């Protein structure tokens, strides 16, 4: 059996974005997505009921995920994303931006993310 180790340091692009929010942040999320460059890479996590994200668009390499509204789901999704994409070791060539909508900030505990600095 072969095991492959995925190194984020060797992959391009070295700029990643996470946009997370609640359905009440949808207008702000749409603006944030419109401001991203066409080559942006990352993920959008939105706590929203089914069918409520129709028409929301993102650059080709930015995926949009709907999170079923329930206690802790958005927090868990953001924590999982950060643990995967924010490296433990400092890499000055790499930039990770996390944007949380105003309605989502009370649902996500940034102290548990284990990073020294987030651009929010």
UniProtKB/TrEMBL annotation:
<dbReference type="InterPro" id="IPR039261">
    <property type="entry name" value="FNR_nucleotide-bd"/>
</dbReference>
<protein>
    <recommendedName>
        <fullName>Siderophore-interacting protein</fullName>
    </recommendedName>
</protein>
């Amino acid at each position: 059996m072969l095991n492959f180790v995925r190194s984020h340091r060797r992959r391009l692009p070295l700029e990643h974005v996470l946009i997370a929010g609640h359905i009440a942040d949808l207008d702000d999320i749409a603006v944030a997505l419109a401001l991203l460059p066409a080559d942006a890479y990352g993920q959008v996590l939105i706590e929203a009921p089914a069918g409520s994200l129709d028409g929301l668009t993102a650059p080709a390499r930015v995926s949009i995920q709907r999170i079923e509204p329930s206690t802790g789901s958005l927090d868990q999704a953001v924590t999982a994303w950060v643990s995967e994409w924010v490296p433990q070791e400092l890499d000055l060539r790499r930039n990770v931006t996390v944007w949380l909508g105003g309605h989502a900030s009370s649902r996500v505990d940034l102290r548990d993310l284990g990073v020294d600095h987030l651009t929010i």
